[in-house]
Amino acid sequence: MGLTASPLNTNTSEGGEVLLVITDRTERKQLEGQLAQAQKLESIGQLAAGIAHEINTPTQYVGDNTRFLADSMTDLIAIADKCAELLDPEKRPRSWHERSAEIKASLDQLDIEYLRKEIPKAIEQSLDGVERVATIVRAMKDFSHPGAEGMEAADLNRTIESTITVARNEWKYVAEMITDFDPALPLVPCFVGEFNQVILNLVVNAAHAIADVVGRSTGKKGTITITTREDGDWVEICIGDTGTGISEEHRSKIFDHFFTTKEVGKGTGQGLAIAHAVVTEKHGGTIALETEMGKGTTFIIRLPIAPDTDTGKEAPRHEEAHSLH
Asked: Which of 102, 112, 161, 266 has its CA 20 to 30 A from that of 136?
């Protein structure tokens, strides 16, 4: 609910009339919530194909290795059966020379040295593939964290790592990902699902900015750097890229609803606006940026470690810089 008071008569010293305007913001808040949900669903839809690809690659070589192991197992069982047959006392008696010659012939036909070398590799690759799929599934579970009515203490390093994993197909072709997480970072009360969405928006935007510099099929790569650190009563998350940078004329509009510098069809203008609302309104934090044309952009998010405690303190302001250091 909003209240605005405006004097109706400003040309007299006598007490005049005042116009009171009461605005019900319920519908606006509902619309903003619907936009945030729609933007999240759009992001998940865009990530779906990439996640499928990330899972398909290890699944494919796990399947190939399993078929190889199945064939190898058939051959090894045949050798075991041959040895059992040669050792069976009820079979025709044979000299040790005959038995060893038959076993050697079977082993030569099988190429036992090849299997001795390749089977451990196949097992190791398969275990790595299974772990890779499990990591992606865990990341998807963390990323799609169901919204809670209130805040909950979260390991921001883990949530950021999960989001990076889920979005990997968005950035891996154009950027190297560098992370520098503070291992002593305390748990921070937050809305985990919405915080994940903020990180996703910034990572995808960083990848797109880098792609505009290096191209999407050149093999060249830029860098996305994500750091976390504790700063007094606040936690700071920095997401930097070596992309195009943001021009002077656009910096003041970057968090406005429906503002985008992307071409038609590639940006809704909601990602950064929603990120700003989530950080500042829902978490009582701040979000700012440092940028320089041709060098890149860094977004700085600051969240209070104890937002439910009225300390009377405000997050230190992080002024927008015109150059990156």
From this structure: 266
Q: What is the CATH number of domain 145-304?
A: 3.30.565.10
Residue 37: in which H helix or E strand, if any? helix 26-87
Instruction: Render pLDDT for 201-222 as a digit per residue (tens, 0 to 9).
Output: 899 999 999 999 988 777 889 9
Distance CA 57, CA 312 (A): 52
pLDDT tens string 229-260? 999 999 999 999 999 998 888 877 787 755 56
Largest CA distance in the chain: 129
Burial of 81 (0-12, 13-18, 19+ CB in 10 A): exposed
From 318, 319, 322, select the one nearest 292 (Cα to Cα): 322
The DSSP string of 98-151 is HHHHHHHHHHHHHTHHHHHHHHHHHHHHHHHHHHHHHHHHHHHHHHTPPPPSS-
Name the β-bridge partners of 7: 18
Instruction: Give the CA distances from residue 135 to residues 54, 114, 192, in Å, rounded to whole numbers and listed in that order.
Output: 11, 32, 19
- CA dist., res. 267 & res. 270, Å (int): 8
